Amino acid sequence: MNKWFPFVLLAIIFLASALYLHQKIQIYVQAYRLSSSYNEYNELIAKRDYLMYNFSKEISIARVNQWAQREKFQPVSKEKVLALRPVEKQRSYEKTLARLLDRVLGASTTASTALANEKE
Question: Given 63, 65, 74, 107, which is the most exposed site by the fewest CB atoms within 10 A?
Answer without folding.
Answer: 74
